Amino acid sequence: MTKEKKHKNLIMCIGGLAVGLVNGLLGAGGGMLAVPLLRKTGLTTKESHSNAVGVILPLSVFSAVLYISAGRVKIMDSVPYIPGGLIGALIGTKLLKKIPAKILKKLFAAFMIWAGIRLLIK
User: Fold this and answer.
1) Residues with Cβ within 8 Å of residue 13, at least 6 apart in sequence
2) Cα–Cα distance between 85 and 37 in angstroms, integer?
3) Full-prediction pTM beyond 0.90?
4) Rounded Cα gap, residues 79 and 44, in angstroms
5) 3-class secondary structure per residue, the chain
6) What is the residue range of 24's domain?
């Protein structure tokens, strides 16, 4: 195995650990780590954004199962958000195809900044 391949594998292993930890601990934010990590492995911006969902989905399902089985989540509290979330996911998937990568990067950065400021203020 080449040194470059070992480095890429190390990034993926440590990155996966960090993404899972943040997602499980905070309930969100794993995707914000996954996107830049996926970019480091050679994926394009759009590939990184779409593949981040593929990474986050199983982690979120696993975390949800653990939280539900521990009695920390009442499913009925989550149900009202699901229809809007599904519609938003459909719209986001369609928009990703149409938004240039340069604008997507700026939207992602703006969202990260907004989320960080919001967390600091509240």
Assistant:
1) none
2) 25
3) no
4) 34
5) CCHHHHHHHHHHHHHHHHHHHHHHHHCCCHHHHHHHHHHHCCCCHHHHHHHHHHHHHHHHHHHHHHHHHCCCCCHHHHHHHHHHHHHHHHHHHHHHHHCCHHHHHHHHHHHHHHHHHHHHHC
6) 3-121
How many other C-beta atoms are found inside a 10 Å radius of the C-beta of residue 107? Answer: 13
Amino acid identity, position 49: H
Question: What count of residues does the chain have?
Answer: 122
Q: What are phi and psi of 91, to 5 degrees?
A: -65, -45
Please give the structure tokens belonging to residue 91.
């719209």
Q: How many domains does the chain have?
A: 1
Taking a C-beta distance cutoff of 8 angstroms, is the pair 22, 33 a contact?
yes
How does pLDDT run along the chain (122 residues), one tens digit per residue?
Answer: 788 888 888 888 898 899 889 887 887 778 888 998 899 888 999 999 999 988 888 888 888 899 899 999 888 998 999 999 999 999 999 999 899 999 999 998 998 899 889 889 98
The gap between the terminal CA atoms of the chain, to the nearest Å, is: 48
